[in-house]
Structure formats: C-alpha cells, structure tokens
Amino acid sequence: MAKRLPLPPALTDHLVEGRARLELDFDQPYLLGPLFGDYDRHLVMIEDRLGVHINARGNRVMIEGEPDSAARARDVLVGLYNRLDQGQDVDGAAVEAVIGMANQPALDGIISADVARPASIMIRTRKKTIVPRSTTQTKYMEALASDDMIFALGPAGTGKTYLAVAQAVAMLISGQVDRLILSRPAVEAGERLGFLPGDMKEKVDPYLRPLYDALYDMLPTEQVERRIASGEIEIAPIAFMRGRTLSDAFVILDEAQNTTAMQMKMFLTRFGMRSRMVICGDPNQTDLPKGTESGLNDAVDKLEGIPKLSMIRFSSKDVVRHPLVGRIVEAYEGTD
What we know:
Low-confidence stretches: 7-13, 105-113
Order of helices and strands: EEHHEEHHHEEHEHEHHEEHEHEH
Radius of gyration: 22 Å
Oligomer: single chain
C-alpha cells in the first residue's frame, strides 16, 4: 500500500496579498481520476462549496482562496486521496461528507486531523464496507462497536438506522450474535393495524420498509430471505416484543420517538445477555397524539449517564443526503 500523503507546508509560507496559494503533489497518478471525478466534478464541488479556485496539471494541484478556505480545500483533497489509497470509494456523497467535516470548527478552526486521515473505524458487510461520513458518525460507529445500549438521536438522513443495521449485519455474519431483531412502531400511535388489508405481515411491512431497504443494502437478496425464513433476522412491530427476553441478539428500535413511555420501558426491559440494543429516533418529530409524552424523550431524561449506555446526538450538520436536506432540517428546527 502506498505511503499516505502528508499535509503541505504552513499557510503563512503561501500568503500573497491576503490570499493563500497552496500546492499539492500526488504521487499516485492512477488515483487522480476517481479523486477529481468525471469531468473534474469533484473539484467543482469543492470550489463551489468552499469558494476557492483549483487548478490541476498532471499530478500537481494548485488551490487559491482565502486562507481558511484554501486550507479546508487542501484537507478535503488530502482526505479523499487517502481514502482512495486505503481502497475506499469516493463519490459525490463522500465528497460532500468530507467537505462537511472540513467545515466543522475545532479549537484551531480547522479539523485537518479528522478530515485528512482515512476513517479509523469501518463496518464490513457482505456487499459493502461502510465508513463514517461525519465526526458524529465516527463517534456513533465507535459506540456501536463497544457499548451495550446506544441511543441515536437526531434528524432524518444522518445514518442512525442505516449504520445500526450495518453493525448488526456485521455481528450476525461474524457469529458475535445469533439473531438480528429489527422493530419500530407499526403505526405512529397505538399500532392499530386492523383496518389495513391482508395478513399480519402485509399489514406491517409498509411501516418496516426502511429496515428491509437497509438489509438489502448489506446482504445479497437470497441471504436476507433465507435468514428471515430461518428466524435469524426478525422484523416486527414493537407490540410483538412484549413478554420476551432478547438474548444473544442485536436489537434495533427505529422511529423510537413514536413509542409511548410504557412501550419504551417494555422494550428496554427485553434486553438480554450477550445482546446489543440500539434505539433510533428524532425527538423533534413525534407523531403521537397531542399531549402524549414520547417514550424516547422520557427514556433519555431517565437514563442519561448510565455506564455502557451511549447517547449519540446528531444535528442537521450530520445529514449525509443532499446538502439541501440539511438546510431544510435547519429551517424546520429553527421554527421550533
């Protein structure tokens, strides 16, 4: 494996009339195609988002702009290059994610250590290797790998459920757990399924579709179907958890903000030996009837600070969908 690219000299060596001019030399030309993107679209994304000018000639890249912006663009390019060097894919979403990380301030205003280094943690499944795309996702993935119970709190599009399913699949195929249990409130309040047509599976499947989608992203279709048929993977509404003890299992509760306090208590006390439990939800998006307390908010208030129980909080800055989604989340949160 090639040597990781170091960061270039300090900005003060490149200041010209208040603007920074930085140069990067890449020693592996075969990585420059995926680094720059088709028709240099990755470079254009960096220019547009950070307000810099980038000129690439051969294996040399020149960046010009305001000192902080040029430094961030440099860190983004070095980070993407190092990810490619480690065998990771770089696409438009990855570029947006690294730019987002570069825009998150640290004590010195630039978090080049997080941006420029390849991911220190990853999840391997049958179909893909998943790496964090924000600083909070890194903390979340570390918690998924080590803690017994994790609350993932924040808006849609931050990867809460997707990463939990990825970790669950990785632990299932490695034999660390015997089964994978995915659950969510089948109807936003009260789980009144009787009016829906079809048998029980047909009634609840539309509400559980996001969990199926994540599974099919991690495992070949035939494996998902076989493991569901054998009971290794169980997808069910939260009402089906009552009276059970979930041992040797990876258990995920999605849309947890739509549970009542009693439902949440029931679910949490199903936790068994040699198991891991992840509770995902957005405290600001409950669909419960007005005046009904969310079980997620109640649990967070009661359980914060318990050892081996992590609370990971995402924000609009961690949204890894289209950048517009993050701005929409910010607009709605601001009205609250």
